[in-house]
Amino acid sequence: MAQISVTINGKSFRMACDDGEEQRLEGLAARFDGWIGELKSAFGEIGDQRLTVMAGIMATDQL
To answer: Which residue in 20, 45, 59, 63 has the most C-beta neighbors within 10 A?
Structure first.
């Protein structure tokens, strides 16, 4: 099992994934971080928890 570090909202998180899936997970994390950035630009500092929930809803909407 591979381990990578991703950065979301300026914070690093260590994550495990299947071997060979590192690049995909890094891409997903970057996309999620982009949504966090969009929300911060639109709403300012509204708290990490709210930003994460709102970005999660945006991700779900993309599905």
So the answer is: 59
User: Whole-angstrom Cα distance, residue 43 to residue 47?
Assistant: 10
End-to-end CA distance of the chain: 27
Residue 37's pLDDT band, with cuts at 50, 70 and 90, is: very high
Phi, psi of 14 (to 5 degrees): -90, 130
**What is the value of pTM for the model shown?**
0.87
Dist. CA 5–CA 12, nearest whole Å? 6
- Quick check: 36 pLDDT over 90? yes
